[in-house]
């Protein structure tokens, strides 16, 4: 235990933490409380007056089949995005770890996509898979796959998952490479001498030792899929076709800023906040138990 | 159980650096061969080539007469104890030891029997449910040993296994390793930079320097008859006193009390073979010396003296009563003198 630092001055410590506290209060607690307050208001169609309705907005939102659909969409989208981006990143990291010559070049190239803005990334994929002008869409049709994400919901989902995952691969890659480097080479050698072939070595030694990294990325990627993918969805599908790719965050935007149902939108964002807090708590509570640090 | 034969083994790294420059060693069945040398002498590289962790650039490595150059570490049927132990941190002690057997498809009850048996020998039975980070350094070392023993491999390889332990534990484990190796009768190669460990453990001692074997043989023979000044100064602590001579004179111009054999340019004698006396012996070397430092160790003392223009060390038993600045005569019997030529090779 490091000894506690004792400040002789009574006010100084409070002054030192004040900026951080101020930022947290102004940019987190204040908006959060505003959202909470707003989620219990209902405005008239002209926005002239609003009425305090307690939990009516929540009741309305949770009874809405569109909202239930949105939960489904978000679950599929988040799991698929997190899994795809982590699996691909892990494969790339393991391969990049083996390269001896010009490994830094490969690493730099693999990290680049992270610098691309979400909306741009979305547009890139949209162009590639555009049914009329996309080169990859052309290839898919040539292979006999009727590709039309503008009409087919599941294909639109595949497209946004790919775009969202692609964006996150670089980030995951970076952490996996660092995680792999932290595993002592002698452990791999010891496992080889102990008769484990490469595949076995990976699953019995490398993967368990990467667990802290994997766990961290699982949390980060889930939060990413929930919140940071708005730009991609907005650029690629706009939540469509129908409501096939309308995630919870996108629905908050749609209902609040497009349809101007502010009370519903606020109620949804409060629910979303609760979901993410619960999810992270569950991850830390249950998944982390299986993680060995050091 | 196997013989290990190295024939003209070389290691050249891609950059062109030659780490091992043609080493041939024949290790008979059940023998413990110790590779000793300063850091960077190629001893660890040689061990890793025997393990299959490094490719052999040239020459052959054979187990029981069968060349294993192209066989990977997984199939060589060896076990290795690493300097940092390389225990799997996410596995319990039991699983650490069982891992190698599981990978080779040993039946479950057989694994259980062997792990518990080995744990008993190494006094690890009460630690089987712990993870490596919950163990002390000495216990980790035992687990690393256990992981090697439980496999019953053809060859044991040790890569400085005791260098992370404190002096007392090191002495203890040294004896245990020797006894275990004898009892199990497994051919072993042991790498160390500690000459004491090398002397006490080895059936065959190989002294290496700059990628080459300087001398190889029985440890006491090497101690008695070092083949070169390098071996003379590496084996034995404190190292042998080496005094350059030219035309029967030391570097400070004083004359040698005896005649040097032809071609000899360096005279050597061990600190423990020399003595300080009032009256010079009739035969042998005598050197006037001045005490510059005294190191009492308990049962013996080391006198650091200026003699023949050099700093020499003399071991005297018991407590030395000499004071710094005192003048005395150092003597050594003729048969305990070593002569080396200008290339550092032994003469006579």
From TrEMBL, chain A:
A Pfam family this chain is assigned to: BPD_transp_1
Transmembrane parts of this sequence: 12-32, 71-96, 108-128, 156-181, 202-227, 266-287
InterPro entries: MetI-like, MetI-like_sf, UgpAE/MalFG_permease
A single BP term in Gene Ontology: transmembrane transport
Localisation per UniProt entry: Cell inner membrane; Cell membrane
Bilayer topology annotation: Multi-pass membrane protein
Record flagged with keyword Repeat: no
Family matches, as CDD domains: TM_PBP2
Keyword Membrane: yes
Record-linked PROSITE patterns: ABC_TM1
Domain ABC transmembrane type-1: 71-283
Keyword terms: Cell inner membrane, Cell membrane, Membrane, Transmembrane, Transmembrane helix, Transport
A single cellular component GO annotation: plasma membrane
Function comment: Part of the ABC transporter complex UgpBAEC involved in sn-glycerol-3-phosphate (G3P) import. Probably responsible for the translocation of the substrate across the membrane.
PANTHER family registered for this protein in UniProt: BLL4140 PROTEIN (PTHR43227), SN-GLYCEROL-3-PHOSPHATE TRANSPORT SYSTEM PERMEASE PROTEIN UGPA (PTHR43227:SF9)
Subunit structure: The complex is composed of two ATP-binding proteins (UgpC), two transmembrane proteins (UgpA and UgpE) and a solute-binding protein (UgpB).
NCBIfam families documented for this protein: PRK10561.1
Family: Belongs to the binding-protein-dependent transport system permease family.
Stated name of the protein: sn-glycerol-3-phosphate transport system permease protein UgpA
Organism: Mesorhizobium denitrificans
Gene (name only): ugpA
From TrEMBL, chain B:
Topology with respect to the bilayer: Peripheral membrane protein
Gene Ontology terms: cellular component: ATP-binding cassette (ABC) transporter complex, substrate-binding subunit-containing
Pfam families assigned to the protein according to its UniProt record, in alphabetical order: ABC_tran, TOBE_2
A molecular-function term among this protein's GO annotations: ATP hydrolysis activity
Keywords on record: ATP-binding, Cell inner membrane, Cell membrane, Membrane, Nucleotide-binding, Sugar transport, Translocase, Transport
Gene Ontology BP term (one): glycerol-3-phosphate transmembrane transport
Domain ABC transporter: 4-235
Matching SMART domains: AAA
Domain of life: Bacteria
Chief location bin: membrane
Subcellular location: Cell inner membrane
PROSITE patterns: ABC_TRANSPORTER_1, ABC_TRANSPORTER_2
Residue ranges that the Swiss-Prot or TrEMBL entry lists as coiled coil: none
Family according to the record: Belongs to the ABC transporter superfamily.
Protein name (Swiss-Prot/TrEMBL): sn-glycerol-3-phosphate import ATP-binding protein UgpC
């Amino acid at each position: 235990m490091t000894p506690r630092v004792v400040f002789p001055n009574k006010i100084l410590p409070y002054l030192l933490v004040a900026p951080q506290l101020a930022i947290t209060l102004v940019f987190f607690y204040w908006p959060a409380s505003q959202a909470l307050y707003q989620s219990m208001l209902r405005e008239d169609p002209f926005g002239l007056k609003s009425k305090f309705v307690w939990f009516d907005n929540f009741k309305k939102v949770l009874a809405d089949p569109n909202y239930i659909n949105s939960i489904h969409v978000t679950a599929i989208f988040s799991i698929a995005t997190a899994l795809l981006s982590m699996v691909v990143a892990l494969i790339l990291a393991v391969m990049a770890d083996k390269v001896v010559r010009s490994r830094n070049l490969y690493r730099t190239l693999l990290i680049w996509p992270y610098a691309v803005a979400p909306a741009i990334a979305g547009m890139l994929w949209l162009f590639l898979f555009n049914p009329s002008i996309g080169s990859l869409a052309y290839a898919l049709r040539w292979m006999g796959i009727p590709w039309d994400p503008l009409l087919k919901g599941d294909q639109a989902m595949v497209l946004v998952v790919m775009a969202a995952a692609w964006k996150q691969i670089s980030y995951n890659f970076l952490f996996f490479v660092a995680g792999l480097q932290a595993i002592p080479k002698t452990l791999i050698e010891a496992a080889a001498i102990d008769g484990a072939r490469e595949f076995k070595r990976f699953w019995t030694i490398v993967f368990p030792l990467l667990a802290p990294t994997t766990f961290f990325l699982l949390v980060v990627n889930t939060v990413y899929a929930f919140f940071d993918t708005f730009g991609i969805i907005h650029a690629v599908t706009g939540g469509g076709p129908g409501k096939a790719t309308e995630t919870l965050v996108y629905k908050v935007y749609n209902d609040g800023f497009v349809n101007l149902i502010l009370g519903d939108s606020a109620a949804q964002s409060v629910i979303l906040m609760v979901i993410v807090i619960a999810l992270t708590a569950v991850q830390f509570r249950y998944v982390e138990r299986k993680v060995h640090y050091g | 159980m196997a013989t290990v034969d190295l024939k003209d083994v070389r290691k050249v790294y891609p950059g062109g650096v030659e780490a091992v420059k043609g080493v041939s060693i024949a290790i008979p069945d059940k023998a413990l061969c110790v590779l000793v040398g300063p850091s960077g002498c190629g001893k660890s590289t040689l061990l890793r080539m025997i393990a299959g962790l490094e490719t052999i650039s040239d020459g052959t490595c054979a187990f029981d007469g069968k060349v294993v150059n192209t066989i990977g570490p997984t199939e060589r049927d060896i076990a290795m104890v690493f300097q940092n132990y390389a225990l799997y941190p996410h596995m319990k002690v039991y699983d650490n030891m069982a891992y190698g057997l599981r990978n080779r498809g040993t039946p479950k009850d057989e694994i259980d029997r062997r792990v518990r048996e080995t744990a008993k020998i190494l006094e690890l039975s009460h630690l089987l449910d712990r993870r490596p980070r919950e163990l002390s350094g000495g216990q980790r070392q035992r687990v690393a040993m256990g992981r090697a023993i439980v496999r019953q491999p053809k060859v044991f390889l040790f890569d400085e296994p005791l260098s992370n332990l404190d002096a007392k534990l090191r002495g203890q484990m040294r004896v245990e390793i020797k006894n275990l190796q004898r009892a199990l009768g497994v051919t072993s190669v042991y790498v160390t930079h500690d000459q004491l460990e090398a002397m006490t453990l080895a059936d065959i001692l190989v002294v290496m320097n700059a990628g080459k074997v300087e001398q190889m043989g029985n440890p006491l023979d090497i101690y008695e008859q070092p083949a070169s000044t390098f071996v003379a100064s590496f084996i034995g602590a404190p190292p042998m006193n080496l005094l350059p001579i030219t035309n029967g004179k030391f570097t400070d111009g004083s004359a040698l009390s005896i005649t040097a054999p032809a071609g000899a340019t360096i005279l050597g004698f061990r600190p423990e073979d020399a003595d300080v006396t009032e009256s010079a012996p009739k035969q042998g070397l005598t050197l006037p010396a001045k005490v510059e430092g005294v190191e009492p160790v308990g049962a013996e003392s080391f006198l650091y003296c200026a003699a023949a223009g050099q700093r020499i060390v003399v071991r005297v038993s018991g407590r030395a009563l000499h004071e710094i600045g005192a003048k005395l005569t150092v003597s050594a019997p003729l048969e305990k003198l070593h002569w080396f030529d200008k290339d550092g090779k032994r003469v006579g």
